[in-house]
Amino acid sequence: MDDNAKVLLDTLVEGRSAEQEGEPLADDRLFELFCLEQILKQNELSQEEIVAGQIGGGNDGGVDGLYCFLDGSLVEEDSEILDEDFDPRKIKTGVELVLIAVQVKRSASFTETSVQLIADTLSEILDLAKDEDTLQEVLSPELISRAVLFRRAWERLATRHPLISVHVRYATKGDTRKANKKVRERAKRLQGSISDVNSRAHSSVHFLGARELVDLASQEKSYTLQLTYQEMATADQSHLLLVRLEDYMRFLADEGSLRKHIFDWNVRDYEGGVEVNKEIAGTLGDPTAPEFWWLNNGVTIICSTASSQNKIMSLDDVQVVNGLQTSVSIFNYLLDASADDPARDRNILVRIIATQDPDTRDRIIRATNRQTAVQAASLRATDTIQRDLEKYFLGHDWYYERRKNYYRNQGKPAARIVTIPYLAQAVLAMGFSDPSNSRARPSSLLKRDADYNRIFDPKLDFGVYLWLAQTQKFVDGVLRSAKLQANGLTNLRFHTAMTAVAFKFEGRVFDPKQLTSLIEEMFTPNEVFKAGTVVAQAGEAFSKATKMVKLDQVVKSGDFTEFLLDRLFPSEGASPK
Hints:
- It is a single chain.
- With 577 residues, this protein is of the alpha/beta class.
- Helices cover 45% and strands 15% of the residues.
- The protein has 22 helices and 17 strands.
- The chain has a five-stranded mixed β-sheet with strand order 2-1-3-4-5, with helices on both faces. It has a five-stranded mixed β-sheet with strand order 7-8-15-11-14.
- Helix 4 packs parallel to helix 7 (181-197) and helix 15 crosses helix 19 (486-505).
- The relative contact order is 0.09.
């Protein structure tokens, strides 16, 4: 059975390799990426988010992937929590801050040495008394840049008394049943040492072998669910249900965890301890409060088909498009509530609309979310240009994800999936010669209307958008084949793409409309390598001139972009007014 699991695992990894376009990944990196995808499946990260957390090269401390989550959402470099002027009072007391550290080995066994290495690394990362300069003596810049996200978030949230959780995942091709006693004892000591950092900290250390990885890979998210109700009113393909909160909780839960994927089409993520969520929790916890559905607008669910029998509604392709704040507040409250809590017998109003028409879905999403104050940036996915881009990409066998992980969950090749942020970064880097902002603002690039309207211009030939996405994907693939450390790839990719395009255009690009003439042109690996070499040399020169040592600081600097462009085209000067 152990041999069968290894054979199946190798087959799955080979299948993952077949999805890659361009230069294939090295075996170690491919296996590493596969393991990270399976281990982080429940966290529902995009491909770019997974890759951004990969660690490589020397002094990685036995950590191949490091990820920080605040209340279930990934913390990135431009996350609001890390802003200097962020007010921690926006976050609820006792919020969960999670660090996931992953170690991957292609060997067929688990070793004490590997466990001890990651234990030593975590002891450094979790010691807030050690500053970044001290950490640099033993850890790589790539690892430190990821660890800093967790450390800074922890420091910012100190007054909110966060619940710290640190989870270690150690994956190999081995059989977990054969992990010897000394290895397991070492893992127990590691778990104990994590708990010693903070008396309220939760910790776990799990081994994953071939069998566990195969099982994780076979897990598919269910979009076909059943919802028990008390009363129902029906008109054509729409239904209005009165549902016990206990039954709604079961609908939301998957083995004790929230089914986050059924909220993919909701325009907002959970907003934590904001006033409305405090009020919902207060109502649930007040036994004298009126019936819950009298005080709450309820939730809206879109599905492809809906049928009812014996007061159970069966739903296909479920998406909760409005009511995420209410849903998560109910889930969080009942998760810790006693079995006889009266809130379990209260009711919520659930609207169900069955439709297979994508335009109708978007109109419903927009309409239901206009009832509350939602920033325009939250509704981007339903904009006409976004829907049109998705159709255009599909017509060319590419997949434009307006909804996070929509095509990934359908098993479409990752190399041909393009998210809204990814396309925005590509347009900004190559179309506006602004790779520094592409690198510095991975998650906040489209928050301002002015930025969004500049990047997504309906007057721009859609062929340019597709070409820019394809070009950035190709550049990423070539840089991966160069076996750059993960952080090096993250830092250099946008500047390399800009430089390669500038060479082909034979000048600095000020507007993506200038690239219309290039959309039939393809790049060669040598052209990308040449551009990457130029960027690396310019980075070294800029670092010496400015005493700016860290690569991620260099590439996030607009001054570096100007420095690079001046070296490329010294006679062109600044952008025309």
